[in-house]
Design goal:
Helix content is about 55%, strand content about 5%. By secondary structure, it is mainly α.
Amino acid sequence: MSTAIQVKHFEAIPSARHGRRRPPAAARSLFDYLEGVVRPCPECSKKKLLLGALIVHLNDADHWTRERIAAWAADPDVPQDESHAHH
């Protein structure tokens, strides 16, 4: 790669950054919550994960449906119906 191409590429990066819009406050708040709250896994109780990672864990490892995860996330103190555990 020539030096001229590298310089042009480098100069394009700042202008692209300045043109990028920030996500809405509601989205920032959601991501702050997903990345800032730690909860124990309601299925195996041995893991404590950030909420965002725990949602993935519940789906992938514990085979919870999205509906069951949503119900649990809305109120983690309500016992979950085992009949909705698998897809």
